[in-house]
Amino acid sequence: MLIAIANSLEPSPVVRTDIDRALADLASGKRRFAATSAAARAELAARCLAGVVQAAPEWVDAACRAKRIPANSPLRAEEIAAGPLAVIRYLRLIVRTLTEIGGQGRPSLPCRVVVDAGGRVRVPLIPARGLYDPLLFRGYQGYGLMDKGLAAPDVGGCLAPRYGAAPARVVAVLSAGNVTSIPAVDAFGKLFQEGAVVLLKMSPVNDYLKPIFERAFAPLISAGYLRIVSGSAAEGAYSVRHELTDAVHLTGSRATHDRIVWGEPGDEQLHRRRLGMPLLDKPISSELGNVSPWIIAPGAYAPRHLAFQAENVAASVINNASFNCAATKVLVTWRRWPDRKKFLAQVQSIFARTPPRHAWYPGARERFVRFSGVEPGGPDGTLPWLLLEDVAPRESRRFFEEESFASLFVEVALDAPNEAAFLHRATDFVNEELWGTLCAAVTLPPGFRRRPDTARAWSACLGQLKYGSVAINHWPGLIYALMAFPWGGHPGGTLESPHSGCGWGHNTYLLDHVEKAVLEGPLDIWPKPLWFPTHRHPEPLAWKIVDLYARPNAWNLSRVLQQGLHA
């Protein structure tokens, strides 16, 4: 989410001069960078990785101060995992990809391509080689589900097919303020994967990271390939419309996207849309959020599975005080599922045991009240966790048409004659009634794929879900954090109807012709995931994973595994 850009505002003369100078520097270096070899880019990425490792403690401390997370709080683990840890993982993966492109022309996959029973090609994306994924993510599998009609022998041509072919460009990156890894990974994707130089405009929400980023990413800055600027809406508008800016990337809101592309809401947008004359005449890629659903397929779950999945759902709302585009906003259940009430009570129990968080993202309290109709009590500046059960879609459209970006979500209980019919109806509901196409989650009971009727329903569901990422038994936020997967809205977004955005981010294999990313994990895992709110010692574990990704070796792996036992 990003604060909206207002085209009518003008930056101050001093800031305008800073942006002019930064773009001039980048324009003078864009052809030089576009011509750099994959090996040279790999070396720059590796030097930035070392910079991030060095900056990580200061980075996390600054984020915790901004979000009012106490020094001794286990919540600090969130800022490690979604900040420097995610960026280090991205850089580790992209260094390998660039090295392989330099040596053999394209990246190598972690294991063999699979063709499923329906003839769809599945390209494996995890476990990542060299990062001990088989041990850290035991029981998980992740792949890109490729476009219909693509054959297995064609996959080689889908790996980095356009690498090195893009023209020299200056890209203005307007990044989000909610998750501290987003600005870095947005910029790195344009730099290392597309060969563009980048003007990174920080969000006012996390502008405190600018000096830290400038030190961590010094190799790119000193070479003239990256500039970082501050500012608000006016500076963002000026940057994207500048004559030296060739293309734009936005991680933010649909409203911001439409202001950039079509102008001010009202007559200007309507007029331009009617004539098909966008205000922005440059390529734009984007990630614009989502009303994220989590479908619970009905069936017989073991008590431990039910408890784990309840905390899984709750954690997806609680993480980062719910200021995530992947935070669950609509839980979809079958009204006749015998364990429905028990499951909801377990989610509510996790909420009741989790202290409220400071609502640090701008406008959160107003949105909470507008969506819930509840005036929050409790300590100043905090918002409670809220699950509204059995919400009727026809009577409460606000929950389904707009991302609340606050600490609440709703349950929708659908009627259907049986489990298979429920999954068909749930698929149609999330596709047709919820705004966005970024990510969705589905929890499947153990026997769901063994019965012919429910197996067919699941196969149809996975194929028909119009989301760029689908997580099975787990939170789609993990797809974001693993970095190997393409991350973005389901293909088909346009300037007129971008849905959750256009283009892929992350995607460290540079995989083309992919329809969606799919991650599946067990119904419960042990040790407990560090992002669960009941994890007792998540910060030491998060720092040990940082050490492992910074220096992948058996000693650091043993330290991670030993610390993991203290969940």
CATH architecture of the largest domain: 3-Layer(aba) Sandwich
Instruction: Determine the CATH topology of the largest domain.
Output: Aldehyde Dehydrogenase, Chain A, domain 1
Give the strand content: 5-15%
| Assembly state (oligomeric) | single chain
- In angstroms, what is the radius of gyration? 23 Å
SSE layout and pairing:
Blueprint (H helix, E strand, L loop, with lengths): L12 H22 L3 H29 L9 H29 L9 E2 L5 E6 L6 H4 L4 E6 L23 E5 L6 H13 L3 E5 L8 H7 L1 H5 L3 E4 L3 H9 L5 E5 L2 H9 L4 H9 L8 E4 L4 E5 L6 H16 L9 E7 L5 H14 L3 E2 L5 H9 L9 E2 L2 E3 L9 H4 L6 E7 L4 H15 L5 E5 L8 H13 L4 E4 L4 H6 L3 E2 L17 E2 L7 E7 L17 H13 L3 H11 L3
Parallel strand pairs: 4-5, 4-7, 5-6, 7-8, 9-10, 9-15, 10-14, 13-14, 15-16, 16-19
Antiparallel strand pairs: 1-2, 2-3, 3-19, 11-12, 17-18
Helix pairs in contact: 2-3, 2-6, 3-5, 3-18, 11-12, 15-16, 18-19
Polypeptide structure, described:
- The structure is a single chain.
- The protein is an alpha/beta fold.
- The protein has three domains: 13-105 and 161-287, Aldehyde Dehydrogenase, Chain A, domain 1, CATH 3.40.605; 292-467, Aldehyde Dehydrogenase, Chain A, domain 2; 536-567, no CATH class.
- Helix content is 42%, strand content 15%.
- It contains 19 helices and 19 strands.
- Strand 1 (114-115) and strand 2 form a beta hairpin.
- Helix 2 runs antiparallel to helix 6 and helix 18 (538-550) packs antiparallel against helix 19.
- The longest helix has 29 residues, at 38-66.
List its salient traits.
about 575 residues; alpha/beta; Aldehyde Dehydrogenase, Chain A, domain 1; Aldehyde Dehydrogenase, Chain A, domain 2; 3 domains; ten-stranded mixed sheet; five-stranded parallel sheet; about 40% helix; about 15% strand; disordered N terminus
